[in-house]
Structure formats: structure tokens, C-alpha cells
């Protein structure tokens, strides 16, 4: 047994529990908070969803001991919450519940949607709520209830708060409760933060974390027929670098190494547009740089986080430059299926190849006296044909290995 110290629904709790005890069991058996329902016990159905440090969390797959020092809010702690009260009324009006077993977790997740999303479509709501399963209603009433609450709040001038007022996200029990409260402007985890005016909204952050480790990493190098000084200076002009990347565009000029923008990508029938931000650092002495970025595609509810490290060096041939890349990234959501295979690296290699071609063309254009404004702009990146060539290439490699064995 070990002692853990939590704040549950605004009250400090000190209790002993086994290290293997799940948070859902701890809440129900030790604290009699039976509004947290346990369904699949695999983190799939969403019935056990609660707030940990302001973040919706599956309590059936979260160890209570991992939440040391965290602030936990169950459905009971949302009795006086403004958004939860409006959602309860809307669920009743729209017949968004029958047996009610899924409802506590559904309300917690729906509250997060109302808090964060400005004007989501029915499709957006269905995607974002897809982690909460209901075997009774068919979801129609649930979606209507959420849409109704959002429309009513926006009509009253209550704007959505990006990321729910949280300036930093993390796993359950990551100690972000105080930061979340400060960002939300509320001392209680159950109270909805007051929305800021649009002009006062903080800029997006790349959320750099030295402890973050990517799911996928690979190395790549390329050579361009231009001097190292020219290439290094070019990499410092972020807007021109973005113009060489197919489908990429910036929202404005970089400020203090921070830039916001988006990139459009097509993979077969899937079209994604990742909106995000990046923090850029450069070391003039070593000619190395780092790009830490995050992005999210609202349509597929996919998110990505990545880091690119690059080094600009003189190549063996005079007047040429070698650029070494180290790329690491994590992809979640619908598009995460592509990161679980070797295809993503092959597609990334081809994307880098297109980038290098555009880089060469742009440097040559400027070397010939052309302006940056008149340089060619990269088109939207369509990975459909690339995926086909990748698959064909892998089949060729497979048959080559088979014939060698014979």
C-alpha cells in the first residue's frame, strides 16, 4: 500500500491504495463517487471519463498512484458547473439518454467540446465524441444537445477557448493543475473559465518539452549545388523555406523564433490540413538548427508533433552544400495508421525530394537575379501517387529478396 494525495472535486484527499489500483476503482470504492461508471475496462467505451488536471481522462486505465498531486473532477463535481448544467438540460430536451450508463462520461467529454470548439459541424462533433460509446440512443439526440448548447452560448457572446484554457497538456497526474487553473482564470477545476476577447487570445504554442520522445525517427541527407553560406542564410528565411514545402503556408511573419501556419496533405482519398505552430532555434557558430512543431487537422481529428534538427555543411565538391536532417514525429488520430508502417518514411523521403527540387530552383532563381516574390511556389502535396510508387517499390524489393533466396 502507498499513500496518495489528490484533490477530488475541490477537496483534498489523502488515502492509501495499491499501486495497481485504477483511478476509477479508487473513486468508486474509496470515495463512494459511483457516478464514474466502469464499462469495458480497456479505455474504449468512455463511460469512465473524468477530468484530471482539467483534461478528459479514461479513469479505468489510469493508475490512481500516477495521479499524485493532481486535481480530479468527477461528474459529481460538475453539479454547479455552468456548461454541465446546460448540457444536462439539453440532453433531457433532446432525449440524449436512455439507460444513462454512458451519460456521466458523455457529459464530461461533451463539456470539453463546448468549451474548446467554436462552431463545430455535426461531423466534427461525431468525430470528437467517437471515444464515448452509447448502446441506446443512436447518438442523434446527443449530437443535437451539444450543438444546441454551443449555438446558445455563442449567441450569448460566450466564445470558445482554444485548448480549454490549458497552456500545456500532459498525461494524467502530470502536475499541470495549477497551470491549467491559471490559464483558465478559475480557482476551481469544475468552473468554466471566462472567455477572453478575440484580440486577447494568446498565440498558439509549439509546447516544447525536453522529455518528449517521438514514435518514429529517421535520418536523411541531401546535397544542393550552392555554397554553404547561401544555403544557411536561406534556411534563416522561414517564409521562403515554407514556400519550398508543398502545401505549406504561414499565417504571418515569424516573431522571436515562433511561427504559425498550416500544411495541406492528400493521402489517397484522405485530405488533411494541419494547422499549428513551430518554435525555431538556430546556432550560427555550428550552422545547426531545430524546429519544434505541433499541428492538428480538425476534419480527421488527427494531431501531430515533431522535431526537425538540421545541420548545414560544406560538401566534398567545391561550391556544394550538404544538409543533414534528423526527423522525429508522433501522429495520433485517424491518420495515425500511416505512422505504424514503413510507408510513412518512404513518403517523407519523397516529400523531402520535392522540397530539395524546389529549394534548388529557388536558390538558382535568386542567384540569377530574380526576386523572392517572383520565385515559383510549391503546389499542394498529394501523396496518392507517391503511395502507389512506394508500394510498387516495396513489392519489387520483396520479389528481389525472394529470388535471391532461390
Automatic annotation (TrEMBL):
Q: Which UniProt keywords apply?
A: 2Fe-2S, Iron, Iron-sulfur, Metal-binding, Oxidoreductase
Outline the segment boundaries, as ranges, of region: Disordered: 161-192, 285-305
Domain (2Fe-2S ferredoxin-type): residue spans on this chain: 2-78
A GO term, aspect molecular function: 2 iron, 2 sulfur cluster binding
Q: Which residues cross the membrane?
A: none
Q: Which InterPro entries does the entry link to?
A: 2Fe-2S-bd, 2Fe-2S-bd_dom_sf, 2Fe-2S_ferredoxin-like_sf, 2Fe-2S_ferredoxin-type, 2Fe2S_fd_BS, Beta-grasp_dom_sf, CO_DH_gsu, Diverse_Oxidoreductases
What is the protein named?
(2Fe-2S)-binding domain-containing protein
Protein source organism: Nitratireductor pacificus pht-3B
